[in-house]
Design goal:
The chain has 489 residues and is of the alpha+beta class. The protein has two domains: 239 residues, Nucleotidyltransferase, domain 5 (2-Layer Sandwich); 210 residues, Nucleotidyltransferase, domain 5. A hairpin with a 3-residue loop joins strand 15 and strand 16. Helix 1 crosses helix 6. The N and C termini lie far apart (62 Å).
Length: 489
């Protein structure tokens, strides 16, 4: 029987499970969804029990598709930054607060009052950020003291799944560095920061390598999934780091990063030392390969185009939107779009900024507006990439996600970013990276670099073309954030 590993990715909209053989081929897969809760404006939550139910169903489905193939290990990945608070019995105290939740503004202020912003950046790679887990814990202490008094442990989403499956609580650096109190140099909890905030380090699980076995599948979980009792469960990585592993991006591939255009847009660049941007404009996290990586995030990338379609053109498909945009021209005939529909991460770290079209006239068409949306997302990503280039230069980006499947957007992004874009032959995302980490974790491959030999070659490369219209538009785009601050709500 063939040997396989399973990769699991706990996303915001659903959990994806895939089985991958040792030749790198996906041989089984499924996705199970669960609801997103928004009890108040700016709040996002989920019930961890929904994650568990969907995960067990997904694992049972994949196990049923394998036809008796030998499962060697299960690797974990998932949405970063979320908070799952547990009591002394390991029970969930309240719904998990997610990565895109924006309720923690006062908690961020409290953290930076206790630990100066520059010190946070030097120690953890980032300032205090509303979406991170640490401000959520401070918020819980401020706003729900009865719940906080019950807390004995705080877990990240994927690590909570690992705890349910194995009974062991652990985390790994790529996800833990998105909490807000992991010292990047030591890859352990920064006790000075936690002491300044009067938080017990014991609230956080111990940190192991991304390829470490955190535990083994409990008999009850084996019965419910159809997987072997005692199956090794490997720590894995946060979704961005795991997706990068799935593309073969590591500190040994310096100069090559990735660009993802999904709901959000993400520029990922590996680096071999923990060098943060002094202003904290882009994120610095540990990578799952033992190195580090910089991350620039535009919160509404494909999400901005989807918003346009749903709001202004609900009966038009995305292909037709792109056809309309092609009728415009580079620079969108002067129209500019600021894609801050959900606040913004890089390079502003401002949850309250808002989007806008600028320079509209009676002469502009629907195609101009759509093209401005595409270009505005690209300009936003360029603003982040320019910060990254000063720290960890990249000359090639592997481009993934639904947005880059459009030839127009793909070429437009290459031109505006000024960087070669390469489309990989296959993109299986974070679940695939989790599977590769699991292969190394159980010794099927001795190193990640050996496992990377499984990955197929790229199928398309686009070189950037100099476009004066884009350069002029970017110069006009750059001051919009500051200019529009005066008119926000």
């Amino acid at each position: 029987m063939a040997d396989v590993v399973i990769g699991l990715d706990l996303g915001t909209g659903g959990v994806r499970a895939i089985a991958v053989n040792l030749q790198g081929q996906v041989v089984a897969q499924t996705t199970q969804s669960y609801p997103l809760l928004t009890p108040h404006p700016g709040w996002t939550e989920q019930h961890p029990s929904d994650w568990v139910d969907a995960t067990l169903k997904a694992l049972r489905t994949v196990a049923g598709q394998l036809g008796g193939q030998n499962v060697l290990a299960l690797g974990l990945s998932g949405q970063m930054h979320g908070m799952v608070p547990l009591d002394g019995a390991g029970q969930v105290i309240r719904p998990a607060i997610l990565w895109n939740d924006q309720r923690t503004g006062k908690a961020v202020e409290a953290i930076e009052a206790a630990v100066p912003r520059q010190e946070l950046i030097q120690r953890t790679g980032n300032p205090a950020i509303t979406g991170f887990q640490l401000p959520k814990l401070v918020w819980l202490r401020q706003e729900e003291p009865q719940a906080y008094d019950q807390v004995q442990q705080i877990l990240l989403p994927k690590d909570y799944l690992g705890y349910v499956l194995t009974g062991a609580a652990a985390t790994e650096p790529s996800d833990a560095s998105g909490i807000g109190c992991l010292n990047l140099a030591s890859r352990q909890w920064d006790k000075d920061i936690l002491s300044a905030l009067d938080l017990n380090p014991e609230l956080f699980p111990h940190v192991v390598a991304s390829t470490a076995i955190v535990g083994r599948l409990r008999p009850e979980m084996a019965d419910r999934t159809g997987l072997p009792d005692g199956l090794p469960v490997v720590a894995g990585g946060g979704d961005n780091a795991a997706a990068a592993i799935g593309l073969g991006i590591s500190e040994r591939s310096l100069g090559r990063g990735s660009l993802s255009i999904g709901t959000s847009g993400v520029v990922f660049a590996p680096c071999d030392r923990p060098t943060p941007d002094p202003e904290g404009r882009v994120h610095l996290f540990c990578h799952a390969d033992g190195g580090y990586h910089l991350l620039g995030v535009t919160l509404a990338a494909g999400g901005a185009l989807r918003w346009y379609r749903d709001t202004f053109a609900p009966n038009i498909g995305f292909a037709d939107l792109m056809a309309l945009a092609e009728k415009s021209e580079p620079g969108a005939r002067g129209v500019l779009f600021l894609p801050h529909l959900a606040g913004e991460r890089s390079p502003y770290l401002d949850p309250d900024t808002r989007g806008a079209w600028v320079n509209l006239s009676l002469a502009h068409t629907q195609g101009d507006l759509i093209r401005a949306v595409l270009e505005g997302v690209a300009f936003s990503l360029r603003a982040a990439l320019e910060v990254i280039q000063d720290i960890a230069p990249v000359n090639q980006l592997l481009a993934t996600g639904g947005g880059v499947r459009s030839p127009l957007w793909f070429h437009l992004l290459a031109d505006i970013l000024g960087t070669e874009l390469v489309a990989p032959k296959a993109e299986e995302g974070a679940a695939y990276g989790a599977a590769i980490l699991a292969m190394v974790g159980v010794g099927a491959y001795s190193t990640l670099e050996a496992a990377f030999d499984l990955l197929p070659e790229a199928i398309e490369a686009v070189q950037p073309q100099k476009q004066d219209a884009y350069e002029a538009a970017f110069e006009r785009y750059t001051p919009l954030y500051e200019v529009l601050k005066a008119v926000r709500n």
